[in-house]
Specification:
The chain is built from 14 helices and seven strands. By secondary structure, it is mainly α.
């Protein structure tokens, strides 16, 4: 196999030419990482999963996977832990599904906790998840953790992006406008819009309308944790005051 990337890519395209192949490229970093692995033959198809939208790739159909609906999460929980446990405690099961925020990873971890302890009532886990300060710690089992998944994307941010992300965790609501985010960060609106778009590109924020964004509840808890661990007390206090002014102008 050639050591040079361009030569290796050419060799790969030659070997796959005319073959009927489906390639899965899982958790791609960016478009540059993907391009050498794309076969040129029209008889091949490629399925790519990525944390960011790879918009610069040509002839690609983009499918954005949003959060699962609460009923879908409830059905998944029933398949994983057994319908009898879910039907025995329907309120608690629905609370667990809701608190997992539509993330399949979160409901899978919650199910793993319940499978490991068959005698644990669902209401006990639901009560633990209801405590915001403990929720991310509860959503970990063995080598899987929601917090660790978020950390992969967070570590790829530069200093300004990560600061903006942490500040958003101080807001109580999920939705925020560019104007409010700029006031919270003490930055011009034009610069703030760029920061918010970059966070949306890596799935740490969801772009809604033209100037509004939404942060997932679990991501908000993660952002708040990072602020407590990385930002000084004075910085957090000043940002908290700005956040209070946003809620009570």
């Amino acid at each position: 196999m050639p050591a040079d990337v361009d030569e290796a890519a050419a060799r790969f395209r030659s070997l796959t030419d005319g073959k009927h192949l489906l390639l899965l490229l899982d958790n791609a970093r960016d478009a540059a990482q993907v391009r050498p692995l794309l076969p040129a033959s029209p008889t091949c198809r490629v399925l790519i999963t990525a944390r960011r939208t790879l918009t610069s790739l040509d002839a690609v159909a983009h499918l954005r996977l949003g959060a699962m609906a609460e009923d879908e999460m409830l059905a998944l929980l029933g398949r994983l832990v057994g319908e009898e446990r879910v039907t025995a405690e329907p309120w608690a099961a629905r609370a667990i599904a809701r608190l997992c925020g539509g993330l399949p990873l979160a409901i899978g971890i919650a199910a793993a906790r319940l499978i490991a302890r068959p005698g644990l009532p669902l209401r006990v886990l639901a009560d633990r998840l209801a405590v915001e300060d403990h929720r991310l710690s509860e959503l970990q089992a063995d080598d899987r953790a929601v917090r660790a998944c978020f950390m992969v994307s967070y570590r790829g941010l530069d200093a300004e992006d990560s600061r903006m992300f942490r500040l958003l965790g101080l807001l109580g609501g999920a939705d925020i406008s560019v104007t409010a985010a700029a006031a919270l960060a003490g930055r011009p609106e034009e610069q703030t819009a760029v920061l918010l778009d970059r966070l949306a590109d890596v799935q740490l924020l969801e772009a809604r309308e033209a100037d509004r964004y939404r942060m997932h509840d679990l991501l908000r808890l993660f952002a708040r944790e990072r602020a407590e661990q990385e930002d000084g007390e004075d910085d957090r206090a000043q940002a908290a005051r700005r956040a209070r002014l946003l809620r009570n102008p």
